[in-house]
């Protein structure tokens, strides 16, 4: 997820792969296969620099692989969250802060490739580290403006 090279996604992601976490991601990430997973990576890279995942544990059982990691980075761009209708529902402007949160990723494989993904993440810990919550009155105003810009950009593309 720290890369944006399409060929690298095709090496590990099945053409019919689904990302069960994509419900809060941009429309391009909601499809199937390597390009949808790449869209998730690009979405994360728009908001965060120096993205890295430190792998702590990997467990495999049949076609299921579980990976326990720490995700880290620095927020340098606005992070936009999307609703079920694929429209922006929240926007968190960058404050230049670093974060490090634990995550557990569940991957189902087929033909040696990832065909399904879902995750457990510490989103509250991330929000606290990045200063999103509790928001100050000034930051709430920044969030409102960022959401307006994100929705306008979405509507222009749609």
TrEMBL record:
<dbReference type="Pfam" id="PF07366">
    <property type="entry name" value="SnoaL"/>
</dbReference>
<dbReference type="InterPro" id="IPR009959">
    <property type="entry name" value="Cyclase_SnoaL-like"/>
</dbReference>
<dbReference type="InterPro" id="IPR032710">
    <property type="entry name" value="NTF2-like_dom_sf"/>
</dbReference>
<protein>
    <recommendedName>
        <fullName>Polyketide cyclase</fullName>
    </recommendedName>
</protein>
<dbReference type="GO" id="GO:0030638">
    <property type="term" value="P:polyketide metabolic process"/>
</dbReference>
């Amino acid at each position: 997820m720290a890369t944006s090279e399409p060929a690298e996604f095709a090496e590990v992601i099945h053409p019919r792969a689904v990302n069960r976490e994509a419900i809060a991601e941009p429309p391009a990430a909601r499809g199937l296969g390597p390009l949808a997973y790449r869209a998730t990576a690009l979405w994360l890279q728009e908001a965060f620099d120096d993205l890295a995942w430190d792998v702590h544990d990997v467990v495999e059982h049949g076609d299921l692989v579980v990976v326990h990691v720490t995700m880290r980075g620095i927020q340098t761009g606005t992070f936009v969250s999307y609703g079920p209708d694929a429209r922006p529902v929240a926007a968190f402007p960058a404050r230049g802060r670093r974060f490090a949160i634990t995550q557990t990723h569940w991957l189902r494989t087929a033909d040696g490739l990832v065909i399904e993904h879902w995750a457990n993440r510490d989103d509250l810990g991330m929000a606290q580290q990045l200063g999103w919550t509790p928001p100050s009155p000034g930051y709430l105003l920044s969030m409102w403006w960022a959401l307006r810009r994100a929705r306008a950009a979405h509507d222009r593309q749609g």
